[in-house]
Amino acid sequence: MKLDILTLPDKRLKTVAQPVEIFDNELKSLVKNMLETMYDAPGIGLAATQVDVHKQVVVIDVSEEKNQPLCLINAKIIKKGGQQISEEGCLSVPEIYAKVKRAEFIEVEAQNEQGEYFTLEADELLAICIQHELDHLIGIVFLDHLSPLKRKMALKKLEKDAR
What we know:
This protein is an alpha+beta fold. The protein has one domain: Peptide deformylase (Peptide Deformylase), CATH 3.90.45. 27% of the residues lie in helices and 31% in strands. Strand 6 and strand 7 (117-123) form a beta hairpin. The relative contact order is 0.18.
């Protein structure tokens, strides 16, 4: 089932997500629906916050074929290093792109849909995507990483496009 994606200036995007404590069929259904929504959008990542579910759940698929879905639950970045700047966009900030500075590589500890812990090392696009999606879970959109002037310009463009 496709879910509705919240877009700026919706205040619910600023909500801090809560840890997942119950790993049940409802959670599996949420993950399945989030993947369907992300693929349909089309996007390469989606945080539960973006679909108005305030739990620490993220789905990602950076593969060309869109056949390598990744689900991170209660994820935490435990190591990071280097720096990269790349252009980012966001399903919650349609048609706005900006250069954002992120860690070049990260190590993440997370749980899967069954609640099992795993560690993942990521670099390049996957590292960017994970950092971007985990930001959503703490109420940060990628525009928050921009200078005040660039952020203001992007928000003005959003308002204009909404009219």
